[in-house]
Amino acid sequence: MQRTLFFSMLLLSANCSKKCNSRKYDQDSIVCVCNADYCDTIDPLEPLPKGEYAVYTSDKNGMRFEKVSNRFTSLTNQKTVKINRNNRYQEIIGFGGAFTDATGININSLNAKAGTNLLKSYFSKEGIEYNMGRVPIGGTDFSTHGYSYMDDNESIETHFTVRNFTLAKEDFNYKIPLIKESELILGRKLKLFASAWTSPKAWKTNGKYYGLGYLRKTNFQDWADYHIRFLELYEQQGLNFWGISTGNEPLNYLLPFIKIPTVPFFWNNQVEWINEHMGPTLRKSKFSETKLIGLDDQRTFVPLLELQLLNNVTRGFIDGVGVHWYMDKYIPNSVISNFHRKYPEKFMFASEACISSEPVVLGSWDRAERYADNIIDDLLNFMGGWVDWNMVLNVKGGPTYINNFVDSPILVDSSAGEFYKQPTFYAIGHFSKFLPERSIHIDVEKQRGLKIVAFERPDNGTAIIILNKKIKSRALKLADPDRGEIILNVAPKSVSTIVYW
Ligand SMILES: *[C@@H]1O[C@H](CO)[C@@H](O)[C@H](O)[C@H]1NC(C)=O
Ligand SMILES: *[C@@H]1O[C@H](CO)[C@@H](O)[C@H](O)[C@H]1NC(C)=O
Ligand SMILES: CC(=O)N[C@H]1CO[C@H](CO)[C@@H](O)[C@@H]1O
Ligand SMILES: CC(=O)N[C@H]1CO[C@H](CO)[C@@H](O)[C@@H]1O
């Protein structure tokens, strides 16, 4: 081996991983087709000997995590892009997706072996190693009908009671078993966080799951108790939550045509609910360590969150912030970096993202670029993670009972017994696989025409992710003063991850 190394600087990896079974539809790139018998894998990541690095590349032309190993060359005085691990920023919280009803329904529509291949793609060491999962508290728009956990008796009982609160069949069919299987595949607990879409209808002034119907003040405490009961019943199933949010997109009602189930809150009444109900109830419960995640809504509304945190009691209860990506192109990154400067003690992460308002397409590299671009922007601006929306949908982008069809990194065609790993799956994988929890963002010099972000891993490895949106390849020299130089040709229209120890 040493001799080979001596004669050839280029080491091609021992090829045990299974290649992408690619298929081209009408888009600019491909999907990787999986079924019960076959699914592409990545070799588990092992620390490399000092002096070596590996580059994994996915691109528009169809490379998927293609690995090339090489050796550092000695430092020169030539123009290089410098890595500086003395400048250290935020820690990684994690990467993941949501265990919606739609996710579960689609996984269950495959046979067990194919379903396991799918979960392995997300959670195993041969997959992209998600460590986080978002769990809706009750139904969302990606359910087959609207529901809460106290529907049956809402006309006779308008306050929370333990006896009248029951988990839904969806929890037992689509969420709990799949979360457990995912944890088995991951080999440890997932970092789960819960978000509620809607309360029981009877607690809202319009009697509906959606629209401009406020939560009645007389039900504010019920709504807090309802959240705690959810945590208790999931704990009885062996599932514990790292975090719980103050509610999914409470400002959805501002868009009058949207029928997404919502508990509308304006910033000031949400402060009252947090300070007098949710905050104290959570902290006094056995789940006092569970993180309370504020906002759980668009970047647009970060200024409203700042208004909330002017209140010291609220500031004391809110541990961190979940941000949704849907309006990001209209709101500059400085909104989140400024928030970090004002509230450095609050962690931040992207708690929801997906390609929405456009039909599902199979194999769009453009969408992969949108994912990678946004993830890098977030990581460069103090965010500690990125959690996708539905982990799995059908090829129409559902089921969704309000016909809010969207795209997903994995789509299932159950009639063919297949699922398709979209370019977006690999885009997020270039981060999730290589940036374990507690990796620390370090400095790397900006490069015109490229997006680049670097991290030091908890095992002292270094991971650098590069997005090239240009149609030309790009020669690049990276200098790590502790290691040497990396000479690289960044493929056109690609995402690459460089790792070394
Ligand atoms: C909040 O705390 C800060 C710092 O301790 C203090 O200066 C400020 O007066 C407090 N504000 C309120 C509303 O209590
Ligand atoms: C990483 O480096 C630090 C400082 O050099 C050392 O103390 C620590 O043991 C290393 N950790 C691992 C996992 O190698
Ligand atoms: C079916 C059921 O458990 N109903 C209960 C709802 O809560 C009220 C008040 O605690 C009880 O009286 C009902 O029996
Ligand atoms: C879900 C639930 O608690 N349903 C109950 C509603 O109330 C009726 C009548 O008291 C019960 O029979 C249901 O079990």
Structure description:
The chain is built from eleven helices and 23 strands. The protein has 501 residues and is of the alpha/beta class. The protein has a domain at 104-435: TIM Barrel, CATH 3.20.20. The longest helix has 18 residues, at 169-186. The two termini are 19 Å apart. It binds 2-acetamido-2-deoxy-beta-D-glucopyranose (4 copies). Keywords: Glycosidase, Hydrolase, Lipid metabolism, Signal, Sphingolipid metabolism. It catalyses: a beta-D-glucosyl-(1<->1')-N-acylsphing-4-enine + H2O = an N-acylsphing-4-enine + D-glucose. It is an enzyme of class 3 (hydrolase).
Biggest β-sheet description: 10 strands, mixed
What share of residues is helical?
25-40%
Per DSSP E runs of 2 or more residues, the count of β-strands stands at 23
Poorly predicted sequence stretches spanning 5 or more consecutive residues: 1-13
Q: DSSP helix count?
A: 11
Tell me what the CATH architecture of one domain is: Alpha-Beta Barrel
Given the C-alpha coordinates, what overall shape results? globular
Radius of gyration: 23 Å
Pfam family, one: Glyco_hydro_30
Keywords: Glycosidase, Hydrolase, Lipid metabolism, Signal, Sphingolipid metabolism
Catalytic activity: a beta-D-glucosyl-(1<->1')-N-acylsphing-4-enine + H2O = an N-acylsphing-4-enine + D-glucose
EC number: 3.2.1.45
